[in-house]
Amino acid sequence: MKFDIKEEEMIIKPYKAAGPIYIREQTGFFQRIRRNVGWLLMLSFIAIPWIQYNDQQAVLLDVATQQFTIFGLTLLPQDFMILAMLFMVAAFALFFVTNWLGRVWCGYTCPQTIWMLMFSWIEQRIEGTRNQRIKLDKSAWDSLKWRKKIIKHIAWLIISVLTATSFLAYFIPAKTLYLEMFNLEWSGNTSFWVFLFALCTYGNAGFLREKMCTIACPYSRFQSVMFDKDTLVVTYDHERGENRGARKRKADPKALNLGDCVDCNLCVEVCPAGIDIRNGLQYECINCGLCIDACNDTMDKFAYSKGLIKYASEKQMAGEKINPFRLKLVGYGALTLILVVSMFAWMLQRTPIEASVLRDRNALYRVNYEGLVENPYTLSIINKTQQPMNYSIKLTGLKDAQLRKANNIEVAAGQMKHIPVTVIADSYSLQSKITAISFEITALQDSTIKVSKQSQFFSH
What we know:
Mean pLDDT: 89
Shape: elongated
Largest sheet: 5 strands, antiparallel
Distance between the termini: 99 Å
Low-confidence stretches: 1-15
Strand content: 15-25%
Number of helices: 15
Structural class: alpha+beta
Helix content: 40-55%
């Protein structure tokens, strides 16, 4: 058997034409949802560092002092578990949503998508519509082209710097950061990070754009593992749409042996990833729904029913019902719920004080001039609250023993203090050479803030 296959037919075509993607601006139901969600997230991103709580910045991730403050809750390196659980909750919640609704995270809430489409919106206001931008890029470099390009890039750079500064306000107190910015007093370290994040924003949203989603982002690569036949994704109704072809608005498609797709190509022109959804589900699709809005507009103009492109699962397209209790979806949801409950249970058990006891390594004990046995210790107290605290130390487990310590034990907010203490006892009153003892540390401002640490007392 002989196969006559031309060489050019063996070449796999890319998912889009080479060159930049010129996104056509689109309005519609899903575009309004995306823009409203995008504005809400952007404004929240900018506003959160300015929220005050107890006369302090409500959310401050102070890496320099290794303190994360979130609405009165101060997390220290010792609280790494809660941060790890938070990341796990976010991961399983993302898996749950992906299995249910596909890549809606990418299409509606991902910072890369929000900033990419915002940069595209600015580009359209300065350089014009899709056709005008294509014409401008193909034209010679005259004064008009230079002016539009310079204005666009200046606008992009301003937004990039503001984005980087807003991001850094989560790690440096916002008032200090912006005051130093207006006074041109940024340190070299602050300037470096602002410049770096601004450069990343400018490059990602202005130039890389969809390449970050299709090439760099790992999520687009492993998302198919979380999909199943019940996952809702942007889908083209092939049976209804084919054969596709142009026609007059009042023409009867059945008489022309055509489907409902008029081959206007708008679904491709509005797509941020530049794909043709009519070719089937592709990993580049970010489920933003812009092609649905574009197609519905066209269907309205031709008086066809909407939904030629829609959110639908493979089962729905085959005429079957979705199974809302499938094992994968229920499993992701259950794991997310378990982690959330575990995280809050851990937080409820968390005490705003942490302490440790360290014995003197030089000697187990010493005998003073009165013949009494002394054991020196060092108590390390960590104040996890947001205000300075005074503490009392009480010794239990050793009768008639003396506790020598500082009179005033004050620990600043979020700080650790080492307190040297000495336990003194008469060896004749002890029943053994090693006695278990406990140090009870209690906050004077709030007696519910306390902790007990065990140690041992040695004698001859």
